[in-house]
Amino acid sequence: MEECIFCKIIKGEIPSEKVYEDEEILAFKDINPAAPIHILVIPKKHIATLLDVSKEDNYLIAKIYEVINQIAKDLGIAKDGFRVITNCGKDAGQEVMHIHFHLLAGRKLGAKIVG
Ligand code: 5GP
Ligand code: ZN
Predict the structure, then answer these.
(1) 38 DSSP β-pair partners
(2) Contact 100, 6 (CB under 8 A)
(3) Residue 110 binned pLDDT confidence (cut-offs 50, 70, 90)
(4) pLDDT in tens, 19-66
């Protein structure tokens, strides 16, 4: 099976602009940003969607939020605010089947969170 695009980014087979990395989590700039700051935060473990998160992996999701907290402070967006989005499945428009958290900031994002 062809490996997923984010697993290739984790392995360095596809280049990315990394903003955070540890042994379990990677954060990198979205290639097609929807806001001045648009970062994708992912577990290095391949988990396809939010529906595939097992109990043993719950700590990874908690850790991703810790990482987002740190990135927000590091990038100076904590004060003005930011939005975190995870699309799951067809109707949400999930394109990459490796769970990811969009971190959006740098402009007023508006009250609506759905299109
Ligand atoms: P989704 O629609 O699955 O929630 O979001 C997938 C995101 O991945 C999109 O915002 C898209 O721009 C981003 N993306 C897709 N391919 C690549 C890539 O090769 N590199 C980077 N940095 N982002 C990508
Ligand atoms: Zn993957």
Answers:
(1) 104
(2) yes
(3) confident
(4) 999 999 999 999 999 999 999 999 999 999 999 999 999 999 999 999
- Any ligand 1 atom below 6 A from CB of 48: no
Ligand 1 atom nearest residue 94's Cα: 3
- Judge whether residue 114 has pLDDT over 80: no
Cβ of 101 less than 6 Å from ligand 1: no
pTM listed for this prediction: 0.96
Any residues with CB less than 8 A from the CB of 97 and at least 6 apart, and which? 4, 48, 49
Environment class of 56 (CB within 10 Å of its CB; exposed 0-12, middle 13-18, buried 19+)? exposed
53: Cα within 13 Å, side-chain hemisphere: 16
82 alpha carbon – ligand 1 mean position (Å) = 18
Distance 54 CA to ligand 1 centre (A): 23
